[in-house]
Amino acid sequence: MADRKMDHAAAEMLEEPFIRIPYELMRRNHRSAQRQVEKDFMFLQATLKTLAKLNDNGHPKDLKVESKEESLQRLRAASERIKGLKRKIQGLQPSVTIASPLRARLHGLSQLQDMNTVSDSDLSWLTMCATRSWKEQRLDRYMTDYLLRTGRLSAAASYAKERNLEDQVDIALFQECAKIGSALADNHSCSEALAWCGENRGTLKKTKNYLEFSLRLQEYIELCRKKQQTEALAYAQKYLATWQETHMREIEQAMSLLFFGQGTNVGIYRRMYDPARWQSLCQQFQTTFNGIYGIPSQPVLSLTASAGMSSLKLAACATGLPHESADGVDVVMEPAGAEGDSDNSRAIVLPIPSLAASPPIHNSSTTTDASIPSTNDASHLHAHPEHPQRNVDCPTCAPYVAVLAKDVPYSHHTNSSIVCRISGEVIGDENYALAFPNGYVYSHRALSQMAKETVGGIVTCPRTLEQCAFDQLRRVYIL
């Protein structure tokens, strides 16, 4: 029963991004509300101070004499501002009846803690069912997060609604990120990203992030591209001059850009006019966005899958990569949901390097796979007797998973396990190995069963279709 209990520390490590994101959102909303409340409070304070001076012993010389109607108008405006300030303060109070995303996710972690504290003797059927349910919900969250991270926003929203996970995932946050990224990459507009930088200026300054300068520099470059030198110079004096302490060299180069047109052959200025800078800005924004909210560089689903694949991957799994080339080829795969999801209709080009063929032991399988040559084709097997065939039951050999597995390290095995190609059983002392005259090795149990089902005890090598009597097989000893 002990092996059914989850590793609480490892689970918490994977859950950390899902807890930190709503926490950072609450912090940002609190800072924004605090600035607005302070602004309203200062306005009210100034208004009331002015009215108090007007009513104290005549009118001070520095104040314009107001009519009674104007004073009443000031009071009405101050009263409305006070009511609005009261509503904002009440909106900041936590609600007991409405569960926040952070509260819902902390509740899920508390359930995990309760399951982990159950002793082995008390690990009942209900507890195991609760653990299984929690794991299924976690997988649903990981899948939704993967869809969000890969730009499939509508598919993620539909899946989250179907699985009742709206409070467990951050759809609105990724929609904001996608909107700003699209404005940069597709519309060549920095307005949305600059507004986002204004909302997070304190955090950007604390982390010494210079995304705002890059955006300001790009807007300056666009003015130079349009040959609006006067506007570009005024823009530089207003927005770029404040960055002299940290970006003096870039500012000097930007000033020289006023004298070079878009068709210049000078390398440094040609690169500044390069439209590819918009893609770099988009990537810089996404990196900054992920860093502020504690979002991992890769989807959590990919991280967990990579950890699992590294425990299964062998050198023999390399042949599972979906390519056949002597010098490598790019495999183009349409992303899932490309036809039905308009958020991401671009194909993903994955460079797959050519890898050497692997021995047939790990790649053996009795399951039919349409993507590999059939063992019933004798001419193909005789023409290529060493042609590897991957094991379709191995996750790291699956064509689409192999793309992810190609960068993970190989698993460490002190003792190898030899699996029979016919039965899929492990070859050992009780189920020892037998070799055909051609050298191919299979398990005794599988070959003896084959001999019983044929006339005269004839066995057939499924690899080469070579036949021989069962007595002609030789035992193989593994040291």
From TrEMBL:
| Name of the molecule in the record | Macrophage erythroblast attacher
KW Cytoplasm (keyword) present: yes
Q: Which domain of life is it from?
A: Eukaryota
The Polar residues compositionally biased stretches are 361-378
Annotated region (Disordered) at: 359-389
User: In the UniProt record, does the keyword Transcription occur?
Assistant: no
Q: Which InterPro entries match?
A: CRA_dom (IPR013144), CTLH/CRA (IPR024964), CTLH_C (IPR006595), Fyv10_fam (IPR045098), LisH (IPR006594), ZF_RING_GID (IPR044063)
Source organism per UniProt: Naganishia liquefaciens
Subcellular localization, as worded in the UniProt entry: Cytoplasm
